[in-house]
Each structure stands twice: as structure tokens, then as C-alpha cells.
Batch of 2 targets.
Target 1
Amino acid sequence: MKVGFFPGCSLEGSAREYNESLQAIAPVLGFELSEVPDWNCCGATAAHTLNHKLALALPARILALAEKAGLTELLVPCSACYTRLAATRDELIHDEALRRDISSIIELPVTGRTKVLNVLDVLAACASDGLKDKVRKPFAHKVACYYGCYLTRPEKLASCKRAEDPQEMDDILRLVGAEPVDWAFKVECCGAGLSVSRTGSVAELSGRIVADAADRGAEAIIVACPMCHTNLDLRRDAITEKRQTPYSIPVLYVSQAIGLALGLSPRSLGLHRHHVPVRLPERPAPSPEPALQPSGPKED
Amino acid sequence: MSASAQHPTHPETLSEHVQDATGESVFNCYQCGKCTAGCPLAAEMDFAPNQILRLLQLGLPGMEEEVLKSLSIWLCLTCETCAARCPQEVELPKIMDYLRQQSLKRGLVHPKARDILAFHQAFLDSIRKNGRLHEVGLISAYKLRTFHLLQDVLVAPKLLARGKLSLLPHGIAGKADVARIFAKCAAADAEAGRHEPQTDKAEQP
């Protein structure tokens, strides 16, 4: 399966291990990533905060280049980029006048025909295509699957079916041997783009997420967004200071957890690039204390 | 108070401008407070999200300025929780975007929001110059804008040691195309600004 690929800026820098792990698992899972030629930044929070038209034009150029390259589907691994591209595509498809206006601004024809996929969409397709059979070393750990904002919201753009308690990432992780815990901060915001300009607020929000994951017995937090990773991993010292409690729980990209299960080396998956060291207990018993994790009805 | 379902042809109040620009009517809000209950940063805001909507509903001139001068509009993370839970389907994040843009144009940005604004501006500058974001350039530019020169000095060596900092930007072939997109969008924004009230202290993003 050939799929278009828009890595986005973080995957060239602070989130390069997300890129490395995606590139490593792709051939094993049978998909080929075809990068959009000469892509630009999607504009992120800054563009939609300061200039509405720019927030549409920047993602539209990426969509136009993807169309020109004949890509019918585009994987956007960063959740924040994903929502900008999906929102722009949605507006372009439903508004012909806007389409003309944006086309003239970017000086490229754009229709919105290239479908935008997030990482869970692509992994779900792999899951139904024999992912389980490719597992060499089950990722037998308790995990807190963290979705954050843009994999579940806005509902019309997100592919997760339950906005308050999504299950898509949990289902994929179960297939590779993990045991997802039931926890309360799956879809809470990490503080996102305020990481630099208001680190204290981010330490507060991200601290609650890390603390709940650890308190529920998770051995790792699994994420699918570079911004979430930065705030939960790189900002761990600020979190420790804020909460006056050290938390050692590592934060892995979903592609890294799957890569480990596929038997790929930690180095090829970029695990050495994290701030919080990735130390996972060697194959714990599948369910040491089942009484502590009753499978009762889920809060919604 | 009745919802003005139609697009106002000559918007006058801020709520009418909001509707004209975003398609969202603040009068759909019946003040249940669910947005505020779920907002991750409501506790740090000067006006809770539902209060922002209330001030817009009342529409008195002094209150409109209160909204544009508020810290709340800059703290909004656009996490979309309020919109996902609103029983009236008010898309508050869209409204917040519009309010921020107006606050900037009218020179009413809250003093405590200056760092947040500086970060966004440094971010866009980096894209305008390189086509893509250059993280090292962004942080340097942010520090120069805010004089927070020592912030995160302990984080940078960690990133560098892990091979996560590229010192030079990844410029793209279409750099000039991206710069032209910026110029056209700024011009369109200035043109739109002529139909909005009190834009004397305009500042471009």
C-alpha cells in the first residue's frame, strides 16, 4: 500500500524519533511512505490565531502539492498538523468560492480530493491486515493510551468514534500484546502550543496527565503527537517541580511501541532520543493483580 | 434575546462581526457553563469562557473592549473540548480565533499575553523566511522578542545531545512561493480590516 506522507516540521527536529520509527515500521507493515515534494509548514496554532486566511492557505499548498503528485491519501502523523490539513480540506470541499480564492493565493489548483489520514487511521488498516501475525516480541506492558485533542476533536474531522473515551489506539496496542489501563486523562489537553510561552500552565496540565497514568499502574504513556510528546517528556523536569513528585514513566510514540513488538531495535526506533529514559520492565506477567483492574462499565 | 439567524449585512456590534466572520452566533449560548467546566485553563482566565460569550451577548461597548483586552482569549488552547461538549454547538474556538485577531488589530492585547503573542509571531516569521519551521531559529527569535534570554537554557543541551536540534533551517525550493502567500494573506487581512471598526492601532502578524 502506497500512502502519501506529510511529516511536518517537528518530525525533522524535536520529534525525529517519530519519523524514524514510522519509517522503520512501514516496510514491515507493508506500506510505502511517499513524501509530498517541497512541503511547507501547516502554520499550526500561530497561523489560525493571527490570520484566518493564512491558516487555510498554508495547508492548502500542501494539499495542492499532494494532488499534483497524484497522492490519493496523505498520512499526517502529527495530530496538530492533521487537524489543520483536515479542517482546510473540509472547508475547501464545501465552499467553491473559497477554493477559487485560496487557489489564486497559493497559485496552484486545489480541490481537496486527497484524503487526509492520521496515524491511527493507517495503523487500523494495518491491524486488519495481519498486524497481529507480525508481532515477534509482544509489547507486554500496561499502557496509558493518550489521545490528546485532535485525534478526537472536532468530531467531524476526527476518526475516533467516541470523543470522551476513544478506543482506537487501545485496540491497536492490545493487538501487539499491551494491556491498556482505564484512566481519566485520555483526551485532556497537554497545554500544547503554550509550552514555551507559558511553561507553568503546561507543567500543570501535563503533570495531571502523567500523574494519573502513573497512579493507574501504567508502565508507559503512548502518544501520537509531537506536541504531546514534548510536553509529557521534555517538560518532565517542569512537571516534577510543579508536583513535587518525580515520575519516571516513559512516553513512547505509538509507532515506537509497535516497532518494539515487531522486533525492531530500540535504536532504529529512536528510543535513545527521549528525555525520560525508556526503561520498561522485562516481560512482566500478563496480569499480575487482576483484582486491581476491574473491567466494569466505563465512565463516559 | 433572539438569535439573529441571518448573516448581518452591516455588522456593527462585536457579536455581529463575530457572526459575519465565523458564522457563529453567540446568541445560541444559553449559559449552561459546560464550556467553562471542561476548559483546561479556565482557572487561569480573567473571564471564564461562558462569561466571554455573555459579554458578547450583552454587546455594550465597554464590555466588548473588556473581551478584546482579556487574557482569556490568549489562553484558549483551541483544544476543542468546549465545542465538543456544547449542547448548542457553539464553536467557541472559532470565535476565540476571531477575537484574538481583533484584539491584535485594535492594539488591545493583554500585557500578560505578550509572551504568547511573541511566540506566535516568531513562529510565523520562521515559516515566512524558510517555508518550514526552524525550531532553533524560533526559540532564538522568541527570546529576542521577549528578553527571556535564559529560558530553557537547560533544555537546549539535552535536545542537542539527542540529535534533535538542527542548527540550520531546512529551507524549501518554494520558499518564495510561501513568502508570497504570506504577503497576499496580510494584504487580504488589511483590506478586510477597513470594514471593521477602530482599526487605528493595526499591527500585522
Target 2
Amino acid sequence: MRTAGICSLVWLFAISIAAAQDRPKAFVGARIIPIEGDEIETGTLVIEKGKIVAVGPADKVQIPDDAEKIDAAGKVIMPGLICTHSHIGGSGTLGGADGSGPIQPGVRIYDSINVHDSGFKRAVAGGLTTLNIMPGSGHLISGQTVYVKLRLHPKPKKIDDFFITDDGGTALGGLKMANGTNSMRDPPFPGTRGKSAYLVREQYIKAREYHDKIARAQGDPAKVPPRDLNLEALVEAMQGKRIVHHHTHRHDDIMTVLRLSQEFGFRVVLHHVSDGWKVADDIAKAKAPCSVIVIDSPGGKLEARYARFETGGILEKHGVLVAFHTDDWITDSRVFRRSAALAVRAGMSRAGALKALTLAGAQMIGLDHRIGSLAPGKDADFAVLLGDPLSVYCQTLETWVDGVRVFDRGDPQDYLYAVGGYGAGHDQSPYMCCFDDANILGGGK
Amino acid sequence: MSRHAKASFLVIVCLAACNTASAQVAVRGKTIHTMAGTPIQDGIVVIQDGKITALGRADQIAVPKGFKTLEANVVTPGLIDAHTTVGFSGILNYKHDQDQLEHSSPLQPELRAIDAYNAGDDLIEWVRGFGVTTIHAGHAPGELISGQTLIAKTTGNTVADAVIVESKAVAATLTTAAQKEAGKSPGTRGKSMAMLREQLIKAREYQEKKRRAAEAGDKGEPPPRDLRLETLSRVLAHEQPLLITVDRARDIASALRLAKEFDIHIWLDGACESYLLVDDIKAAGVPVIIHPPMQRSFGERENLSYATASKLVAAGIPVALQSGYESYVPKTRVVLFEAALAAANGLTFDQALRTITIDAAKILGIDNRVGSLELGKDGDLALYDGDPFEYTTHCVGCIIEGRVVADTPR
């Protein structure tokens, strides 16, 4: 009896928490940047059960009677930032394919990720809500990527807690490919660009044959070829189920990717595209979206020699879909908005640059129906800012994922990850791919 | 004279003439941050023969006839990067354009920076495009004593054109980056300190031998010349500081201990965990050339903070910011961008600007020439179309000793 009483108390408590979470929340009076549509000077955002239910000018949005009203005057609300290319969680050189060969599409990055990596906490401190976590670029094909939402509250226990799944419960992700210098190494890796392209073509042709065999077997177990995880992933790419995220810098390497994409019909997003400004016409003609990295200086390796802040703006003017990415650890997720701002400095439009941090990234991972803008029916993923998102002085105050606050700058522990300090860096895994220098990390052992 | 030689001669004459002509320049700025007193609103700076000859409010300064006048919303002194390796760690990152670190010995104070500086590396032009006019550069962290540093202007075709101080500091490293494996020394923190102390003691003995020989006059026999000990002797004699790259608090404590034992001047460099030892650093009177705030935080640097500069400045410790050494992409950081992050994390605008102008100049001992806009100082200016720290502001011009070295908005 007594136990039953305690149980029912606990149960009631649980119900009330759920009810509090289920209650709609209305953020009132903020400048709202919905990405789709004009910026709203004084707006209201209403969320309920993890979804956006209303967004618009404060005098036009009806706030439900039972809603919790949150005064957001003086603040800016924009969609959670989406990074199309991240290596947080130990997913760089140590995460995906190993040194046994240049083509390993069967490897899944999510089998290697440390969900407790403080990089995730830094990412939400930068207003990020969704990442495409990728294996490194030291292989022609280094494995399957995973699209994750940074559900840091309650504390995640495993990477599965971050998954974005399809209706069947399968974790969504793409396929990581690379060309140029990073994947050119000692045998069994290719030593030249010609060999690199040949090896990739050979595998895709095999995958096509594998697929044809399965089709011809018409379900007859005697005729179905043994399951091949590597070829299976390539088939998924050719069927458009898996978007190819392709590291490529130099203009000729970019053209090679477009040629391969056309030959095998895989949907491709070009990543980094340092020389993209040189072949913007061709990229536009191929309708290939570009996920651009913005780095503080050109060089550091041959293929980044002509990297420019102007790339995003030039591609935009040619009608190319442009997103930015952190390549975290190459750049820090906490300052991701800076990439867009530097592109604006070099000629990109403000609207285009803000879209490149959000909706364009969602499009590049095929999730723009769920995330990337503030619109009714979309996931309640957003950042609350103090200041203009393109200003150095802007602070991310709060980050929300699926209607749950996952970062609060006012919380001392969250603040530590936002600014740094003693204890902020544990569990970090550096990622700097494919450079043979014992002292590459410069930070010691 | 061959036709070819004649043509070359003409080109040289023209270049010389052009230089002289453009050395007469004035800059009108809506706001001029002189870093010597309050900013001047609607002011003018006149530069003649490379030096500032007049500055003040536009209604009080007459621009001499024939001077070229540039205009900008915001004018600052040319920026100073208090520690970088541009000119040593080349843009391509190939083995043969990386002269920032010699690995054959852990102790090489004898390596001079002037023998390795590539004034023509494209990264120098890159940082200049954002307003950086003076750099303190040299052998990078990574060996117990990596070598010497120099101070240069971000211009000139040769090291002789560029350099303003040929040998400034001797660069030492007390991070694990300088530790060796496979039984080589130094392999630990304790051994690193033991080796440094041993060298300084040797240098002191060397000094002593030289002194005794000099005292003995004709009968004296000076020790054979030793470039390594000669360099360290200059550190002992307070002619050069020992720049000590440190990350961890315990290594900062070791550096301070070393400075006290040998009565030498040191600069703490990097100093990621310096916020844990503010009182000790302040008491020791040691300046700190702080790591770039956007430097990657991992390994020894896992505890770095965007707010370190503000904590040290608040305590009254002399602070300058640096772009540091980068081994990969980006091959260099830009000190303007780093100061911007510091300004967004606790420093005021003025304090942040000081860390890359006058305060950097004072630490480096070159404030008689650069770091502020004052009469008689070098005509080094950076021009911006807005708040220099804002991401979307452009550097619209850069002037070094009266010559316009960059005028494409960047």
C-alpha cells in the first residue's frame, strides 16, 4: 500500500514533467530570422511537442491560452545551425575506414563516435543543432556518414540518442568520398589522380553489377549474390538513398567529381571546394550543391592554395546552392556563424549566407522538410542570440533541439564549454587528416 | 650597357622615384584610434618620408601640396603580431618551405632568424591585407631552444628591407611538443628544465671566462668563440629575453622559477593556463604573449579560454596577442581576427586593440617606432570601413612607412 502510494506519487510527478514539456511555449518579441521569408522585426515563435506550431509578427500570432510565455524582446531567434561536415566525436582519422585500403564504403562512422566528447557541447554553444558527422578524407571512400541532432538534454548515453531515423527506424546518413591529395598515399592507396578516379569507377561498376545480379535473381536464394556491405552502400548511393559527400578542393578534382557523379548517377554535394570560384559555371550547370569551408588563410596544403573568402559569394552569384561547414576541428563549431559573416565580407548576400548556415545545409542532407527554417510543422530546433548573427559580438544564449533546451549560456557548466577554461577540453579528439608530420598537431604528445 | 641592362636600369629608377613620391601621403579618418590618448574624430595623419609629421583634427591640419590623401571610416596604427611564424612556415606547407623548426638538436639558440626569413612568402602579403604591418617572427615552438626571433615590417623584397630588429628573443619551449621519444632527451618536463638550467650555467661560466680574460688584458686568454653560449650570454645580460612557450600551469610555474634563478627576462608565450597563475605572473612582472583565442584546444591546450586575455589585462599584466604557429590549415591565423574574439570575450574595444598595437610594441621594445600614431613615429597605418573587429568590416588600406602597400578592400 505504502509502496503503491510512493509509486503513484512518482507517477504523478512524471506526468507533471511531461505536461510541462507538452505545454506550448511562446517566445515573444524577438527579432525572428525564419530563413524562409523576410526577417520579422518583432515576432513570436510558438512551439509544442517538439515542433514549431506558429511563427510570425507578434501582433499576428495567436498564443495558445495554456502556453508558457517567454519574453524574448531584444533577442534574435533563428533556426538551429546545420553543419554539413563535422568530425566531432572521434570521427576523423580514427573513426571510419582504416589503413587497409582506399575504398571502404561498408564502414559506418556511427560505430565509432564518443557521445560524451565535449565537442558536442561546444557545438550547441555555437547554436548548432544538426551535424553530418563524417569519417576523414584520407580515403577515396572512407565510409558512411551519419546525420545527428544534438539532443544533449537529458544527457545522452550513446550515439543512437542523436540519430535521425527514417520511418523504418534506420539512422540516416550519406557516403563520404574524397579526391585530390589527402587520399593519395603509399600503396594500397592511389599515387595519382588518374589512379584515384579509376579505382572509384571500378568499384561503382562492380556495385552496378551486384545490383543487377540481385535484380535478376528475383528473390531466388540460389541466384542472389552473397551480401556485400561495401557494394551495398554504393548501390544505395546510385539509388539516391545515400547522398555522396565529396571532399574536393582543386578545380580539376571538382570536375572529376562531377564526371563521376554523372557516370554513376549518384547525388553529390561538393565539400570544401577551395577552387570552386574557378569553375563556378560548371558547378552551376551540373546543379551540384557546394558545402564551403572558410579558413583564415589560404594554403597549408597545395590544394587549398587558392582558397578565398569570396568562394561562397561567387558560387551564389552563379546560382549554386551554397552551405558552409566547420570541418570541426579545422574550424571551431562555436564560431560557425563567423564563416557566413566572412563570406558576406567578401561579397555574399546576407540572406544567402544565413541560409547557408541553415536551410541550405538541410537540403544537402535531404532533411529540409524537417529542419533548416522556422516554419509551422518543422522541428523546434533554434538558437536564441544576443546580437546580430553576423557580428563578432553576438552571443548564443540558448540552443533548442526538438523543443528541448540543450544549451543555456547562463548555466556555469554550459558557459565553460562556450568560452573555454579548465576542464572544457576533455574528451576532445583532434582531427587533421593525412599529413605526414610527426609534429603536425603542434600541441605535443 | 646592353639593351636588357638599360631596361632594368630604367625600371629601377622608376621604382625608386615611385617610392619616394608615394612616401608623401596623408590619411583622413572619421575616427582615428591613435592609441595615445582619446581617438580623434574627423582627423588627419600626415606622413612625410616615412614618418608621421602631423596629426590632429581635420580643421587644424593642412595637408601639404602634392600629397596623396586616402580616406577611411576608421584608422588605426598598423597592427603588430607579437608572435608568428609567417616568413618561416611557408604557404604550401611542403618540407622545403618549412623553415620554422630544425629538428636535429634540442638546443640551438645559435640559429638566427634572419638566415631563414622569406620576405616574399604569400602569407606575409595575406596578413598585410588585413592591416598587419609589423611581425615578431622566428623559429617556432617545438625544440627546447628552437632559435632566435626577429622583428620585421610586412614589406620588402629581402630580409634586409624588412627587418627592424635582427635578433630579438631566444625562443624556448616548455611544452611536451619539445619532448622526444626513444630515449632521446629531453623526454620529460624535469629533464627539459635540467637541460635549460645546465645551458644557462654554462653560458654564465663562458661569460665569466670572457670577463676574466678581458680584465687580464694582453695576458688574458678568452675562451674559443661559441655561438650557442654567446647567444645565451646575451639573455643573461638582459640584452635579449627568453621567450618561453608554455601551455600548462605547471610549465608556466617552471618558467617563472627559471627566470628567478638566473635573473633573466622572460616572455610567456601561448600560456593557455595562465589564468590559473595570474597573481604569480603579475608578481614576477612578466609579460604574456597570449595564444590566438581561436587556436585549437586539445592536448596541452585543452583548457584554453577565449577569456584569458581579459583576465590577464584586468590584473594589469602586460598582454599582447599573437597568431602563433599553425602546422596545417589555416597555415596562419590573422591577429586582427584573434583580437576580435578577445574583444567579444571580455576585453573592451580599446583594450583589444592595444594587444595588437601599442601594448604589443611596448612588450617587444619597439614602441619608439610603432604601435601608436604620434609625431615622429613610423607612418604605419591600417584603414577600415567600420569597426575593425567586425567580421563584415573590410580593411581598405594599409600603409607602411608612408607607402601604400595594400588598397584592395579585404
